[in-house]
Amino acid sequence: MATLSKIDLTMKKNIIKNSELPNLLKKLKRKKQKIVFTNGVFDILHRGHVEYLAKAKSFGDVLILGLNSDASVRRLKGKNRPINKQLDRAIVLLALESVDYVILFPQDTPQKLIESVSPHVLVKGADYKIADIVGGEFVLSNGGQVKTVKLTKGRSTTNTISKIN
To answer: Which of 19, 87, 124, 164 has the most CB atoms around its CB within 10 Å?
Structure first.
């Protein structure tokens, strides 16, 4: 039986640093893998997240998830967030079959990261209009696709936190 520390080490291998991204992308392109990218906070993982990420992965071969750093979450969501720290969120996400790699980003938007990854498919929730999705214009201009995924009704981190409070 695996110990938690062994699981952490295995998962951490797929938490990609910005400096490691070019080599990963070369490897994936050599293998002709269709790269899907999505991003978000993913603070308290729930059914809606799991369903969303499984659908996102279905659009390609490899799902790279841009994860907001703790500092960016605080700027976007307020001083009481995130509930779970970035390393914990990354490890939980990597435990899902659908998520292949996680890369943290400190900015408020993933625009620079999307330009670095240059995915074949960019995915966000259907609460976004395709024209308003950060990085969408870049992906489309490079021959990629931008897709939205219907969200699971009644499932959100904000609702979960409200119930807890």
So the answer is: 124
